[in-house]
Amino acid sequence: EWQGIFASRHSSECEALHGRLAGLDAEESSLRSTLTSLQRELEEANEQRRAKDAMKATVEFISEGGSADGQAGDGNPPGESPDRLGALPLTPGPTSPASFAAWREQAGSIGGG
Asked: pTM for the complete prediction?
């Protein structure tokens, strides 16, 4: 008789635990789906921010006298720079406001300004 009571109680607890486990599995699946969606949104936002930063740096560069094709705005062909920037290698240009600021600072220290 004791064995029947123990088995009955154990079975009820086991069923309750299985039910709880099934509920947690469903919640996990839902949370994973939400996480994946949020990661995708974050990546899209980062891509938009990078594009905006690059555009801002380009606009700042152009407003400082540069041209959209990366030339210094003085009519020199690519690879030849004005005296003020003579020691700077010509690269496609800064891609973020931070790199643009560093580039501008380096240009100022080389040109004496």
From this structure: 0.45
d(CA 91, CA 88): 9
Give the 3-state secondary structure of 51-105: HHHHHHHHHHHHHCCCCCCCCCCCCCCCCCCCHHHCCCCCCCCCCCHHHHHHHHH
pLDDT tens across the length of the chain (113 residues): 666 766 777 788 888 888 999 999 999 999 999 999 999 999 999 999 999 999 999 888 888 876 555 555 555 555 555 544 444 455 555 566 666 677 666 666 555 54
Exposure of 20 by Cβ count < 10 A (0-12 exposed, 13-18 middle, 19+ buried)? Answer: exposed
Distance (Å, whole) CA 101 – CA 60: 10
